[in-house]
Design a protein that fits this description.
Elements: E1 8-13, H1 16-26, E2 30-38, H2 40-46, E3 52-59, E4 66-74, E5 91-95, H3 99-108, E6 119-120, E7 130-135, E8 141-146
Parallel strand pairs: 1-4, 5-8
Antiparallel strand pairs: 2-3, 3-4, 6-7, 7-8
Amino acid sequence: MGAKSLHHTGYTISNLDRSVAFYRDLLGCEVVATQEKQGGYLAAIVGYPDAHVRMAHLRVPGGEHVIELFEYLSPPGGRVDVEPRNVGASHLCFVVDDLRALYERLQEHGVRSFLSPPVDVDTGINRGGLALYVHDPDGIILELFQPPPARTS
């Protein structure tokens, strides 16, 4: 017996309202649920007896995979170095239709945390696509990916 599917990907963030606005208003995610939890199973599963969080579940419209955002109210936390090369760093990859247009839109809304402008994917199974990395408001790495045009045989 082993894993049979993915349910969600969770990230700890510093300000739930700011992060929800970023993912909802700039990336087009829909908010599935928001809630506040304290103690109980949450405290047991994370290993903090005083665990108290605000959280939101989001997803891409029509998608199934959930992004879970946790803002810890207690205990206070610190920051980790999520630079792409560091062991344990992760990223979310969003598929988009028009990466260049989204890049311009994000810039118009003040996003300045791009690691690069859109880059042509020139090798591998995604050759012909476009991609870039950008940080969310807490420095979490996001990849924005425009797949290559469908190929005909």
